[in-house]
Write a structure and sequence with these properties.
About 0% of the residues lie in helices and about 50% in strands. By secondary structure, the chain is an all-beta fold. Strands 2-1-3-4 form a 4-stranded antiparallel sheet, with no helix packed on it. The two termini are about 20 Å apart.
C-alpha cells in the first residue's frame, strides 16, 4: 500500500476503534496497547483493500514506537 492508510483495531474479529483515519504509510505507528489486539490496515482511497496483522499484546503502559 502506498500513500496514506486508515488504521483500525479489532479484538476477535470485532471492530473496536479507528486509531487513525489517515496516516502516511511509513511502516510504523505509535500508540498504547491496552490488551491483546489485531490491526486492520486499509488503503486510504480504496477501503476494499485491507490486511490484518497477527494478534499481539503488550504490557499496560508500554508505548510502542
Amino acid at each position: 500500500m502506498l500513500g496514506n492508510v486508515r488504521i483500525q483495531i479489532y479484538k476477535d474479529g470485532k471492530f473496536l476503534q479507528i486509531l487513525s483515519f489517515s496516516s502516511l504509510n511509513t511502516g510504523s505507528f505509535s500508540w498504547f496497547i491496552p490488551y491483546s489486539l489485531e490491526i486492520k490496515i486499509f488503503e486510504y482511497t480504496d477501503l476494499s483493500v485491507s490486511a490484518y496483522s497477527g494478534y499481539f499484546e503488550q504490557e499496560k503502559g508500554i508505548k510502542l514506537d
